[in-house]
# Entry
Amino acid sequence: MQPANLMLLVIAFVVVAYGLGYARSRSLAMPMGGIRHLKSLPFYYGARAALWCGIPALIVLALWAAFQGKVIQLLVIGSLPPDLVPEGAGQASLLLSKISNVASGALPPGFVEAPIAEAAERLQALRAQSRLYMSVLVVAVAVLAGFLGWIRISPKLNARSQVETTLKWIFFACAALAILTTVGIVFSVAFETFRFFQKISFFEFFFGTQWSPQTALRADQVAAEGAFGMVPLFTGTLLISAIAMVVAVPVGLLSAIYLSEYANKRVRGIFKPLLEMLAGIPTVVYGFFAALTVAPFISDFAASLGINASSQSALAAGGVMGIMIIPFVSSLSDDVINAVPQTLRDGSLALGATQSETMKKVIFPAALPGIMGGILLAVSRAIGETMIVVMAAGLAANLTANPLESVTTVTVQIVTLLTGDQEFDSAKTLAAFALGAMLFLATLLLNVIALKIVRKYREQYD
Amino acid sequence: MNTLNTTVTSEADVPEEKAIPVQDERPAETVIEEGKTVGTPFADDPKFKLRNVEVFYGEDRAIKNISLDIARNEVIAFIGPSGCGKSTFLRCLNRMNDSIDICRVKGSLQLDEQDIYDSKRDVVELRARVGMVFQKPNPFPKSIYDNVAYGPRIHGLANRKSDLDDIVENSLRKAGLWNEVKDRLDATATGMSGGQQQRLCIARAIAVSPEVVLMDEPCSALDPIATAKVEELIAELSESYTIVIVTHSMQQAARVSHRTAYFHLGHLVEVNETDKVFTSPEHELTESYITGRFG
Amino acid sequence: MTDQRSQAELVRQSLKRRYRKERRFRAYGIAAIAIALSALVILFADIIGKGHTAFIKTTVTLEVDIDGEAMYLDDASDERQMKMADFVEPLIRALMKEIPEAGESDRDDVRDLINPYASNQLRDALRENPELLNTTQTMTFLSHTDVDVYVKHAGDASYSIKLNEKQRGWVDALYERGVVDTGFNDVFFSRGDSRDPSRAGILGAIVGSLLTMVVTLALSFPIGVAAAIYLEEFAPQNKLTDFIEVNINNLAAVPSIIFGLLGLAVFINLFGMPRSVPVVGGLVLTLMTLPTIIISSRAAIKSVPPSIREAAEGIGASKMQVVLHHVLPLAMPGMLTGSIIGMAQALGETAPLLLIGMVAFIVDVPDGFFDSATVLPVQVFLWAGSPELAFIERASAAIMVLLTFLIGMNALAIWLRKRLERRW
# Structure
């Protein structure tokens, strides 16, 4: 049975368990003179039976579904004749994809060596077996645990508190998933990054000015493994983010100021949602716009002025990214500006200051820390933005500050290195994870600092 | 949004006050007659000449047909139960109500025989002449010096640094703060005590040499000692400025003002010499208020 | 007094300059809003301008003489013969009949007017109904993409027209006579991806998006709400709770591509889950949207006034009963609104899905959670990278469809908020 269908079956069991538990508590209460002699309402006895039935079964199902793929892969590899056993993880993944292609019928068995065709059959058989075992086991666990839960129902049992405690733990587990996710991120990048630094030196990675992972530049480099100096990626990312900020900060800030200080309620009601629409547009749409409309326009326009501009200029990607970030900056600034107490505004206006003088000399300085925090968050968003740069920035790692040239960014390289077939032990693939680790650390740092500043600022006026 | 919030905080209790029916408290003959003020609301050659003033918040009539003169260099106190419209009325005098979208002012309000609400009237200039001190001390999050220098700077009152230094020193002296802060002019103002902050706000207001200073319950957030200092200051300032003070405390009104105006539910009920108001009020509502029967 | 007079004079002198500054500042604000809005307008205009023509298809309607002899076919029910038969020939002949001026030497040019897959259409028709052999049928085929481009974009300099002079003349004549015609492009909405722009559609991507969203919603909504309930109602004030909160706030700001790395390393490499499937996509997007949902659900719970809780606790309800019977129903509209907005974000997300292999070229419409699939934004990405303008046209159209979905979801969220949210 497919996991999805099995899940429906488990849910059916859960419903039945609830009904049985409910009925049993009632029938136990009957001779005693009604349900008021039960410790809890029949509903809770039913719910308790349902939890007993459902939770273990779902845990078994989840674990099985999570690990069956890996176990089957290992079994298939293990059963290959010795001369075919792959040497490294890279070969293994190639071989496995070949086998699973044969198994799924995408590749006719006649096209591959006999052992591979056999392995494919074995894969099919193992998958069928695994599904069968899983179904039997899950059903058995559901029935057995449900029965145990059901048989132990007695009038003195405090079913309500048990159910509530269980629910509380489930709620806790859901909240703790956030920790698990962070741990998952840290481990998934840390592990591969560690392996990367076993192949490539720290020094080369952080201070090398050549980035060319696909081809070897110097003779002493490992065959077909190129240079891994991240300086040009770093500067490229900074250049594009800086351009984005140059667009987003003034436009976002000034529009927030106008909407919060000058516009009346009606105007604000119209324009604020319109600005926020910019934030709802998917990044792939901005990427499309940058790559196919803005970039050609910039290079044509530059050409008409006699300047040479790349068709994948940093200016196009950065400018469009800036547009994307405008609502981000404006809504954060809006919050911060509105948090400045009205009494300061009144104080300044009562001295005869004009609105702009009040804004520039009193409100803005008072709001500055909060605005800085908001800008840092925006920067973190800009350096982590992927689709716009993947579509509109280039792949060539140029070390330049000229916005009309093409640069590449950390995120572009991660996507480029990881799409398509990967070999999991090549420096190229590992480099993507190392870049991911840098990106994660940088954004984490920016976010932590920014959130701290913003929180401190809020406390000041609370 | 903020502007609206202030309306709510300063005038929120209007409906609540309305809920206390005047008729139940007092016999029928004390029902206020609109536009009729007992006592001496008018003066010769007044600084402010205010006639038939009405203020609306949306549909709500917060000020009902008030006429009053404010004389030159007098200290006049506005008293009354909370929500009676005294702050609203005060804020008309330098058009601080302008920033509230739903607020409309009707009637004739003149400062030195020039209409305050004239469309050609310049608010900035008006406010430079009519300064204001607020209920809660609101120093800017800047240094003490910059707070006082703020007004002169934006209005371009000082050409040289030394002129500005003089203005700051004079204003702080007048506010009785100079000796306390002369050594730490660069310290941030928000670090001062509440009473110092309020006196700083007064110094800030007089640094632009206004002709009138409006004070909206300037001592309500201060302790008794700080209050005493501010009251002393008001007495000194009354020599060169016209001062309009809204206060919750009748004792304060009695101590600092020359004349006292009693507001009730948006009406101006009585205006008289302060002594007279507190010893022999003419109107029954005034009497019940000062004897503490409500408010 | 004189001091005050002269001061007033100084103030008056400064006014002109200051009001000029005031006006300038105000103008900056208006300019900023104008810039942002014009960017929005240009973006929409650009995409609609590029994409609206993708909703039109070009067809060729022919009287096809299904001549068995010319096709080397005498029994259409014989699968072996069907495999060998020539289904192109009858089409060419039918076209030649419509273009009298075309001679034998023009056969190739004539053939290139009709879609290369038209012969498959003819074969499928015969397979379904072998009786059609040796009859004449009126059939409508898709035109060749080059013809489609010529018909729709003849005057547009940005498109390069690949038809030669002779072909253009023919197409003009055929268009005049209604043999070549345009109509609503149903193909675009009923097929998966294709190498041939005329036959490429977004149904596969829409179904892929739908499957992915089902997984995301089914996981992130209950988990997010449960986590929010825990943090707002049950969490003790301790280090662990603080740590959870810090994690949630940071995850909300982690770049989406990092979640892609997580999916690749954990779901695919560690658990051996298949690549390119909606389940893995849904899992990754769940982790990505969870912080948004948790944060908005917490806000919704916070907005339920304590008086409700106190009232329920006052009559002896347990904490859990108070939460499940009273707080949760009252907070539900806010939670739903937040979740819809989270889903809209997930629907538009591309980067993490690239890393878990949802960029494959997939022709078939996926039929399950474990079937290879792509999603709408990735389809846009794939087509946008094509050098053929006909694909760019379709990418724009796919963007229009995607934006329609997103606007619909946001409108639903706004409607829900207006309709269901109480004011306390």
